[in-house]
Amino acid sequence: MTQRVSIVENILNANDRLAEENRARIDSAGVFAINIMASPGAGKTSLIEQTLPRLAGQLRVAVVDGDIATSIDADRAAAAGAGAAIQVNTGGECHLDAVMLHGALDQLDLTQFDLLIVENVGNLVCPASFKLGTHKSILVASVPEGDDKPYKYPGMYRGVDALVINKIDLLPYINFRMDYFQRGVEVLNPGLTTFPISCRTGEGLDSWVEWLVKNSRKE
Amino acid sequence: MHELPASQSILEIILRHAEQAHAKRVTDVYLVIGQLATLMDDSIQFYWDIIAEGTPAQGARLHFKRIPAQLQCMVCFEKYSPNVEEIRCPNCDSVGVKVIAGEEFFVEAIDVE
User: Fold this and answer.
1) Taking 70 as the threshold, does the pLDDT of residue B85 lie above it?
2) For an interface test with A, which of B13, B29, B113 has the most A Cβ atoms less than 10 Å from its Cβ?
3) How is domain A13-218 classified at the architecture level of CATH?
């Protein structure tokens, strides 16, 4: 005899619950945590490399790096001045999830830091769906990727709290319509905090660093 | 995207509830998926058939209820269901919108024996 059992349980619950646990740990240490996402090569690691020296003496920073393979990015973060640089190798998983961040947090004494930078796996699709427990999500877009990406990747652009547009030094050489790009962003995420920068020339980095310091001091 | 882990989560949820209900078999699974959730019914069904084999949910039929996207304009507060290409407010043409519905992804119920 058939019986209907009511469930109403969210399918991504397991990850979300662990993300909440991660957040509680981060909050109790008074740390500001960000999740940096982007396509491969947009400039996540370069942004971290340019950010760390500018935070020296102001904030103590820990970095958690997610990659399918190698510790290349964690090594770069350590060389640039991270107080701790933990590499998570996903072995094939295309995004970081709350479980992986949980494991990385176990390797950190959060009380020794003011800012936690999580660098996600290079991927413009999947990371948007997996909460980690960080306070803010940052998307790094880059000029050579093209100006139509907000239209083509709405899930990512809609879900982030700040946008960094990297490689603006290449604008004279690339067919990138900034107004078309920004209109695409505005439809999905009106008023999104945006930082046009160049990691290579240093342009725009001061505003980005100021934003990090302001948010870290609030926690 | 990620229909295999999604199917695995669905299986875990329903087997847990089936056990709590002391059920021998799950015959039907009722899923609610929002229009904006990035999952394909066919792919979930495909993985489901593979992973449910050998479990009390083997052969269970999946039912997909799709919830249309509903947005609310943050300027004039008009609620509307957008078509795919244009999500601006049909009333005042603003771009500031909030998603009220369309991102759901849950197991609503199961039928058991």
Assistant:
1) no
2) B13
3) 3-Layer(aba) Sandwich (3.40)
